[in-house]
Specification:
Elements: H1 2-14, E1 22-24, H2 50-58, E2 69-71, H3 77-81, E3 90-93, E4 96-100, H4 110-124
Parallel strand pairs: 1-2
Antiparallel strand pairs: 3-4
Length: 127
């Protein structure tokens, strides 16, 4: 949960210079394949339809992360294009990937995202 707290803080701190979105992709731990027990999402099943995926993504609103939550289509085009499974942080600028984070949630580094955004904001402001 610390990563979510970090991301929420980054969104709050940099929303004047960047647009943020979360794209909910295929479920990393569906009950039928790789269940992880002891958390609020332990009942999510493998998405068979887009409606299943939307219903699962809807649960993210409880985190109030401060940005829109989009849903990857069932062909997993975003997950595949961005090698996003199970989760990953990106920064895109003018249709170019500027930051490509490690696989999350355990290996992504919110401090690197913060540093990039600070540098970008400073350059925009002429510092």
């Amino acid at each position: 949960m610390d990563k979510i707290k970090d991301i929420k803080t980054i969104i709050n701190d940099f929303n004047a210079v960047a647009d943020f979105v979360t794209i909910y992709i295929k479920e990393a731990h569906p009950v039928e394949e790789w269940p992880v027990f002891g958390h609020r999402f332990q009942v999510i099943t493998k998405h068979k339809t887009l409606e299943d995926r939307i219903d699962a993504a809807y649960l993210l609103r409880n985190f109030d992360i401060g940005c829109p939550v989009l849903v990857d289509p069932m062909d997993n085009q975003n997950c595949l294009q961005y090698a996003a499974f199970p989760e990953r942080l990106y920064i895109l600028y003018d249709h170019t990937i500027m930051y490509f984070g490690s696989v999350g949630p355990f290996n992504y580094k919110t401090r690197d995202v913060r540093k990039w955004l600070q540098r970008f904001r400073n350059e925009r402001n002429g510092f």
